[in-house]
Design goal:
HpcH/HpaI aldolase/citrate lyase domain-containing protein (chains A, B, C, D, E, F), TIM Barrel, lyase (chains A, B, C, D, E, F), globular, homohexamer, eight-stranded parallel β-barrel
Amino acid sequence: MRRNRVRDLLAQDEQVVTGWVTTGSSYAAEVVAHSGVDAVTLDLQHGMFDVPQAIACLQAVSTTSAVPLVRCRSHDAADIGHLLDAGAYGIICPNVDTDEQAQALVRACRYPPTGRRSLGPSRGVLYGGADYPQHADDTVLVIPMIESVRAVENLDAILAVDGVDAVFVGPTDLSWDAGLPPTSATVADELADLLRHIVDRARAASVPAGIFSLTPDQGRQFAEWGYRLIAPGTDMMMLRAATERAVAVLRRV
Amino acid sequence: MRRNRVRDLLAQDEQVVTGWVTTGSSYAAEVVAHSGVDAVTLDLQHGMFDVPQAIACLQAVSTTSAVPLVRCRSHDAADIGHLLDAGAYGIICPNVDTDEQAQALVRACRYPPTGRRSLGPSRGVLYGGADYPQHADDTVLVIPMIESVRAVENLDAILAVDGVDAVFVGPTDLSWDAGLPPTSATVADELADLLRHIVDRARAASVPAGIFSLTPDQGRQFAEWGYRLIAPGTDMMMLRAATERAVAVLRRV
Amino acid sequence: MRRNRVRDLLAQDEQVVTGWVTTGSSYAAEVVAHSGVDAVTLDLQHGMFDVPQAIACLQAVSTTSAVPLVRCRSHDAADIGHLLDAGAYGIICPNVDTDEQAQALVRACRYPPTGRRSLGPSRGVLYGGADYPQHADDTVLVIPMIESVRAVENLDAILAVDGVDAVFVGPTDLSWDAGLPPTSATVADELADLLRHIVDRARAASVPAGIFSLTPDQGRQFAEWGYRLIAPGTDMMMLRAATERAVAVLRRV
Amino acid sequence: MRRNRVRDLLAQDEQVVTGWVTTGSSYAAEVVAHSGVDAVTLDLQHGMFDVPQAIACLQAVSTTSAVPLVRCRSHDAADIGHLLDAGAYGIICPNVDTDEQAQALVRACRYPPTGRRSLGPSRGVLYGGADYPQHADDTVLVIPMIESVRAVENLDAILAVDGVDAVFVGPTDLSWDAGLPPTSATVADELADLLRHIVDRARAASVPAGIFSLTPDQGRQFAEWGYRLIAPGTDMMMLRAATERAVAVLRRV
Amino acid sequence: MRRNRVRDLLAQDEQVVTGWVTTGSSYAAEVVAHSGVDAVTLDLQHGMFDVPQAIACLQAVSTTSAVPLVRCRSHDAADIGHLLDAGAYGIICPNVDTDEQAQALVRACRYPPTGRRSLGPSRGVLYGGADYPQHADDTVLVIPMIESVRAVENLDAILAVDGVDAVFVGPTDLSWDAGLPPTSATVADELADLLRHIVDRARAASVPAGIFSLTPDQGRQFAEWGYRLIAPGTDMMMLRAATERAVAVLRRV
Amino acid sequence: MRRNRVRDLLAQDEQVVTGWVTTGSSYAAEVVAHSGVDAVTLDLQHGMFDVPQAIACLQAVSTTSAVPLVRCRSHDAADIGHLLDAGAYGIICPNVDTDEQAQALVRACRYPPTGRRSLGPSRGVLYGGADYPQHADDTVLVIPMIESVRAVENLDAILAVDGVDAVFVGPTDLSWDAGLPPTSATVADELADLLRHIVDRARAASVPAGIFSLTPDQGRQFAEWGYRLIAPGTDMMMLRAATERAVAVLRRV
């Protein structure tokens, strides 16, 4: 089975940069995959698309060496299984607040006897290889998101769940849930404390931690704190910012 | 009928910035339309989409005050009519090399007796208003592209064609056709001479000139030379550059 | 944030007419939005489309002043959040039978601390404005459907749930569930009693009531009873009836 | 090969009512096909869709006994061949002004030696039957549109072209081209004269004539003059009118 | 209401062959439906498509006498209702392990008072007829899948659930769950014992049994054991095998 | 720039097997590309899809080492340029009957000064590499189809056109145009003479010849005559035949 380079990099405590696709355009996904990233995450939760577009995007990303990941919409095991069958090499799952939820997520991503994933990896076999069923459980990444106060309270238990390959922090939701101001280019001290606490606990548990950042500079700060899987903003944040910059340059005439 | 703000701005010799959409994602088109541009051009020639996606993009752009333009694929009158029926407020037509071609373009865009456009402006009426048929000929912009040596030779004749509202330069194709090196962030002197010649002739003929640029800075240079309708790069150029910048920032850790 | 005109009209006890789109065609949705309605509801439950088409329809409706609403498919919080992120300004949720279900619906539609909606309103920000996160909870309408005997029994408790902005009756399902004949152009007396009971209780609780009707005349009758948010049939009911009328006129020759 | 019921009806001088689909929604096309019409015409010229949606609509119409027709976008032989391969049982071709153009249209629709249609009727075989190649030329309808003054001048020559199975009048374009006021619910006298002239010449040549009408009543008038293939308005005209009527009924409260 | 020929055949203990569509291409679905099968099953669980493509495929299958079935993705009642509304004449539901789950499945597929399906069979009425609501419960097939050890343990209870019209075995998942080697062209003895046990119990309970097979020959073996609803492989298995055979023939040159 | 393996194989007089995709399903295209073929041809002429699906299929094929080719719909230079921009590595163009048409085809596929292709290879750069503009003319295959008596008469002139990289025979159309019976599994003697004549002339001119065949065995026969680029049937022919075989096996029970 094709190796999961993101898994390998994280195992070596190396940095992983992932693009974050919210358009559902397979061309845009392919462009991002060609831009030097290690992975491309298709965001089915807040992205403006759904499974059919995700499948086309997974194909587009598969034309490159970037690893195709998805942020699924919910804990729904059938949806998660479908995205894995479509060739996703990792599931970033929103709103995992307890170890029970993390265990359910692992079961959704693993074949029996570990889990209850149904066998039928249609595109998975094309992308991963004919021995996909034998090796998928050791290849596909299971990554619960930590994005609530409750999840932080249960963090050690979540990190201890067998099969959790990494955790991924959603600072926007976490900040909001903690009653802090919305995240922006600068991170408030209280949020910074939370984010450093999470990555410290994760590293202590030998579980790699990832995080979404609003800007590349913010992502660099997170990396310095120990985060290893970094999303430096979404495709549409970048497109909007770049277009606004272009307009500003031209308006100066 | 809803006024065409791009037409108004050009009539006042004001600068017009247009986004340039090549993905066909209606969400991306909407994001660009919200980024401070005056217009959004949907590129059906080199963009990775076709008419159905263009229609959705036209709807998306129509949620904003940005003016929806299209760069059509060819001189085909039926395709041009279809895009106008879908609510495009301007046609940027590639490869117009002669005044005969420019006249044919005008005929494709205008109703009888001026032209041969067929009456049935389905979305045009929704976007433009019930009096669309009466005012479309005075509202919709007809913009031939000047992107070959032959077109430059015939420039004065093209500019003199009744109904040509502006011209739009494609420096990449023009440079290539002139046997010059491909355009890049810096414009070679010989190409610069050509580009200044075109805008000078156009201004002399009181026809606004537009141009595609590879970067915002290049676009500003063109604006200083007298170009008024500027595309400061495509959406995917911007996304790729922004992603590459983000990766570079993160790799520095 | 852009105001929700449907919320304003209901607050003033004014009538609201909503189109009801079941095709998933963004052009059809735009046509309906231009037909004098106050809102357009995209029906993801019985409509022949899914989320990707709904997103395009939301864009199409957003070209007009008609308010974009959705009838979601189920109580699934992730689906509801996704539709809100796509710019829906109201959720009409089927089969809400108890106050617990109504509370869960409110939580799905509201940000913390009121609810558990995840922050990431991609198109919501484009449609609503940059301050969407701050005002969404006071803008977006939460509208449980009353369409079972059990829901009627629990009506007062549902109406009392904090965050329920209106209720919406599904007379077809309600009639069927009550063991009454299917609804038709004329409303059976027993059903009429139920429908009048619901609107009376809602008005007593100062909660606006809406209803689906099979014909405009039936809708007018419901309005006279006190319903304020009226869907006068689906797009495809209207298209079929209009085509049948046209055929009948022509067959008379 | 499955018979073409529209051809049979026209051969018997019977009336044929065709729906007119402009949305590209296959569900809407199926609804129209179930509404009592004899045929459904998919309008690729002014409709807000393109070939992929047309193929899905052809499938939807094929679930019924209504005959699937298309109004193609132009005289382009490759496009026409593609639509026929997709199972269209008739081509209504816009803007046929001369007998040469009519001959070219016939060649685009017929196999050698009569024409130059390429053999490969993918869905044609599924819909028509395994003997499609042998009988297609005698089954598929070739219908040039008469919608300009020039076409009227050349009418007899067009009607005399071997292989022209019917003509179809576009009164809107014809009126506009003749310098007459746009068509409306009432037909101006000068336009009426033109329309009666066309149908009279067609009947004299034993070529059935069809026409697009803006309302069913107008269609009935045309039928009384001798037109036999009648489109009583588009789907979206009907949906808009029906929605406006519904709103009017409800506003009366 | 249009009869369900699969139900009739199973009632007579006749064999039913079903195509198994995993592409979501409506043209491929139509081709399969024309290939002599009694039914076409659209696989939304492991197929590389989603509901919008399923709706188009249901339309395509409805052009033929083959019965449209779906394998849904999960037990989700809203999804199942939506697919039924789209005209599916049978639901093959994965992973039904207990009689409680089978009862929930029946409730999702049946109208009140038997179940809780919501009334609004949009395409169901087009395909089934105007009396769809009255007869759907007796027409639409409810078919839980037996594909785990637990399901086999609970088999008699599942078979006894009122409203279960047939069961369908997934030998791949069952084999995997039982700790047996993955299924292949030859069936291991232990799996054979399980499969024969299931069909024997089903026949004893007068409930028809179906099964997925990897090859037609395997399917014939299953038929000899008493299975009556047979899927002889997926569309993409067949396409891949046929292409590989073609390549092998050509490589011999 | 990524090499064109089909070009290399043909230069070495090696056999090339190409899949032939008519569904437009990107998943089916990916499956075919994984089945041992050297190339996958997307058939836009008789396939039931259009450019948007072709782009997704090109992405899917690009996940493998199979070379992506297209059979375009017509000689239209804008369409051809668009497909090349989308990453097609070869154009198989229907109905090239004269050397003038072959020259026009070459011009459509080559950049200035050789041709008039417009510069903007959006996906071409992603698939081919950043130096695509410099090497595309030497990489992309230009392949006119010989499928009429007239083309055979003009064969030597066509073969002599500079830039024609191969010719591809359409035996079905050729047979039909020559007044011979439709092709079937066995090739009639007169057609065989024509087909051998073509390949002999092509080999004499050192131009590789390809051909469409209805079955793998027929393809092998053609290969023995000297054809080197062989399509052994379409995807849907194979799927239909395989399904019919499966049904036959099962019906024997």
